Amino acid sequence: MAEEGKKRAVRRKNPSVNLDTLGLEMGNRPPQALDVEEAVLGALLIEPNCIDEAMDELSPGCFYGEKHRMIFEAMRLLNNEHVALDILSVSQKLKATGNLEAVGGTVALVQLSQKIGAAAHIEYYIRILKQKYIQRELITASYDILKTSYDESTNVDDLIDMAQTKIFSAIQNNVKKDVQEIGKVINDALDDIQRLQDSSGLSGVPSGFPSVDKITLGWQASDLIILAARPSVGKTAFVLNLARNAAVDFNMPVAFFSLEMPAIQLAKRMMVSETRLSADKIKGGVKLADWEWEQLDIQLKRLAKAPLYIDDTPSLPVMEFRSKVKKLVKQKGVRLIVVDYLQLMQGPAELRGMREQEVAAISRTLKATAKEMNVPIIALSQLSRQSENRQGSNRRPQLSDLRESGSIEQDADMVIFIHRYDYQGLSDNPDDVGRTQIIIAKHRNGAIADIDMRFRADEVRFVDEQESLVNQADSMGGVASAMNSDMPPFGPDMSGGMSPGNDFNATNDEWS
Q1: Residue of 260, 294, 372, 467 marked active site
Q2: Secondary-structure class of domain 34-172 per CATH
Q3: Residue 350 among the catalytic residues
Q4: pTM score > 0.90 for this model?
Q5: 201-476 has which CATH code?
């Protein structure tokens, strides 16, 4: 019993003692094809037509044999110097780098050049080498993940981030997209134009604001849209309006990643916007009347049934975000992704402490995810204090105000700022309360513009300025307006039926 106890103690002390020899114990060897490596190198020595394709597709790591890696690296250096590849030039380069004897001298190069039959099948051989290389990379990543998993001092979140990063890097770095002929691309573009002509005119996900959609034609697939403003200006409120409009009014699935606020707080904000009840009543500070409870249930039916999915994981690692997006697009058919907000995401573990590089990596991953999944991603971002330190009209946000990394501006297909006059203290006029400009400061595929809107803080929502003016005119003319009336827009219907605009039957419909 004592000896058995000692053995268990040793295993606990060295939990990963067998990891390095696991492959040998199982009788396995790393994936390799040394004969194919020789064939490719021989083809490069005697067939100039093979060189461009091999240099574009292969890297030294694709060769398992150390001698083969040295030879290919010498060939790559010569190719970059625009020197023809042959036995003499390669041997001279190997001699200059001190590797000629290590690879077996000039005799080894002569032997490689005798692989005459390789040139005709170079494309097939390259594919084999890339496959073996990816297998080795995945094995290496798996061993690193196993070793780190046995280390109990490793934070689980860091472990998951590291595992996803390594697996993703092993795959992504070795996948290349083939070029396409212009004729096929033009045909695809014509088909897309015809589809748009037959539709409503919007080519992307509608924002629900006509003035915005007029400029953007909807949020375009594969675009990274950065929505930026100073704190408390209304970033979350605006993007909640966008998500609600797409999901409720157009029945388009939307995924909302909230790193700042819990899901229940977001839901309450949306309930205020949807019902236009005061926030005090929604939060429980003021009691709801019985009829308000009944109408609240009616008004929220459309919102409750909308294809809107909320993830409120705090400090979400960017690679975990990528995995969740893939799952949501595949399983739920999500058409729009929202991230609130970018600076609260976690970048790759190896970049922690280097904030600018970490934010740059997050920005690049968001753009890559949008392109790969072919969905628009709207990511909120903070602005630096530079705009507040400027005087007068110069307080308008600028692209240089984007916080922590210039990569955000570079990676974004569109950058939108929210500029509030009352927030910036630019006007004492009571009519300017809530007056807002939505500034499209960068638009890679369209025009830039300033869009006038109005923020209604009590309803936690934005409206087009034109809609606001129409409602004011209706109010002044004595016409009851739901927007401006002191009574809630879903007050008791004196005729005994539902108020105009309600689409659901209170007695038959249930919460889903």
Answers
A1: 260
A2: mainly alpha
A3: no
A4: no
A5: 3.40.50.300
